[in-house]
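Deliverable D5.2: sample structural annotation.
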Amino acid sequence: MRNLFAPSLINTASQPADPSLQVFIPAGGNLLSPGDGWFEPVVEIGDEVQAGDLAGWLHRLSEPEAIPQAIHFKVKGRVYSQRTFGATSQGNSLAVLVQNLSNKERS
């Protein structure tokens, strides 16, 4: 047991913390489902997107032969959260975008 607590095994050096980043959800940053179905996202959490970029496809389960509906982001930002299961109803959140607070302060 003595070696377990040997000073060489204990790291006492302090590590600097990562800088924090303050963000906000811009108007239009909460992407809502336009209808019922199965949402298939094409982006990942952390991706930077632009207004008009494809967010994913909405498959209408009530119309299995219908062409999936393309869902696009309305604003630019970073994907902060995303629907973790595909089944969705009209008005459910599909994704949330954030922007850096420093960008808002400059506008």
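Annotation notes: Strands lie at 23-24, 30-32, 37-41, 48-49, 54-59, 69-72, 77-82, 87-88, 93-100. Helices lie at 101-106.
The annotation will be released with the project's public dataset once the embargo ends.
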